[in-house]
Amino acid sequence: MALVRWVALAAPCLKSPRTSEVVTGVKSIAAGGDYTCALMDTGGMRCWGANAAGQLGQNSDSTCTRAVGVTTVSCTTCGGSIATTTVPCTVKPPTSDLLASVKAIATGGAQTCALMSTGGVRCWGSNLYGQLGDGTTTNRSTPPTSDVLTGVQAIATGGVHTCALMETGGVRCWGYDYYGQLGDGAPTSGWTPPTSDVLTGVKAISAGCSHTCALMDTGGVRCWGDNRSGQLGDAATATCYEFLGATTGTPCRSTPPASDMLTGVKAISAGCRNTCALMESGGVRCWGDNSYGQLGDGTTTDSSTPPVSDVLTGVQAISTNTTHTCALMETGGVRCWGGNHYGQLGDGTTTNFSAPPAGDVLTGALAIAAGGDFTCALTNNGGMRCWGDNYAGQLGDGTTTNRSVPPTNDVLTGVKAIAAGGYGACALMEAGDVQCWGSVAPWGKVPTAVDLPSGVKAIAAGGNRFNCALMSNDAVRCWGYDTHGQLGDGSTTSGSTPTNDVLAGVQAIAAGADHTCALTNTGGVRCWGDDTYGQLGDGGPAQGGRFSPVQAVGTCD
Q1: How far apart (Å, rounded) are the C-alpha atoms in residues 484 and 399?
Q2: What is the pTM of this model?
Q3: How far apart are CA 444 and CA 426, in angstroms?
Q4: How many CB atoms lie within 10 A of CB 216?
Q5: Does residue 384 lie within any of the structural domains?
Q6: Which residues pair with 527 in a beta bridge?
Q7: Helix (H) and strand (E) counts for the chain?
Q8: How much is the average pLDDT of 54-65?
Q9: How distant, in Å, are the alpha carbons of 125, 129, 139, 183, 246 from that of 178?
Q10: Among 409, 442, 461, which residue terminates a domain?
Q11: The domain containing residue 205 runs over which residues?
Q12: In the chain, how many domains are there?
């Protein structure tokens, strides 16, 4: 999804925390399409940001402005006026929980569901197709006062449908049913959870854009719903119609199959139009969309059934990106397949490869990372080697020449961890220093040391060419692009040298496209940078951004 960014005047920063609203104990954070929810240590829940469909579970306290039809990172060179629209929003965390006794939360594009500690389910937000399960198609701006379903152990939200895994191992789904993803055999959407299971004996569920898959207790897999690309894996050829009387439809399955289409499975993942299974034996099998050969079955033809054997065995980890897939073998070898326009498969060509290669393109690897059109591997001696697209020097080899095979020597040694962005990468060294290369400060074609004190504990790579480091003294320093104040140094001046701490007393950091948040040692949240939708939670909005860390109201200082 393209990120919308534009430049506007900055609003004043919040100068001090509002002590009357301070609470402690943030346990976890979940980010929806353009809003944020926090699960408190106490089991309470609080949300803030965009609220067009009521997904925050509370009344909005502000109106935020967003650009329409603008997809560039910065629109200072777009020319002319920028069309905007307003969105109801809440720009600071509420001072009290909107819901208590929550066990887990699930955020979608515009709907939110909570699994209660009692095993009940409550949903609110967008409800066009009854996906909230409250018997209506009316958006709900507050959590219901009672559960729509009880006895639940897990929940999964798809595009516009919701599924629950019952404590008994049964599956129940509700919401949009055009493609049969609810599994109840009905041609219409279901506005309430069904009273009986559509499938039993299930231990895990996964909801795709418009299909649903279940991992059975026995290790078998069964899927139902949309089958336009064969993602159900059982060659279902039934037709689903959007409304009664329609003359054209979509290949689908409106009920779970009676038998497994694959067995011996350890885990499942339902993508938008494809599905992959990690076998108990360490093998990989994928089916569905295969435009670039990413299924690894030797073709670029969509597959409507899982392969009869693994496309690859002896796998310990996989990293995928838009067009290619890479596997880290149990032996430490690396093998990639799929799109290869820039040599990202590492096989010496720029030809797409629709099957895993028979041999490793690199050995002695500990970890792999598939970037936009390049691949990096961390070797077992702490070195790093990258190949593929190199127009911005992201491979770190001193050139801007694409490389279709892994280099024979490490571009960097003594590496502890790596972070790869769209056009560059950074490495946290075993000695505690940081080196970066590519289109990220210090903007080099070879790994270049960032001017930081020694003793870095963690690094975070932002979406718009900036990085932050968590120091051993629990302080934060950032560098790179600073279009929205995401460096936190009080300005919007980009820089390759992080000279001062922007925040102290921090235990963890996270970098978004153009904003940064920190979890403090006391359990508080401080954020800075882009605040268009109130995502900083400081009482904005500030469309130009917050240039220094501000406290998310309702969290401890």
Answers
A1: 31
A2: 0.49
A3: 11
A4: 18
A5: yes
A6: 517, 550
A7: 0, 36
A8: 73
A9: 20, 10, 20, 11, 12
A10: 409
A11: 151-313
A12: 2
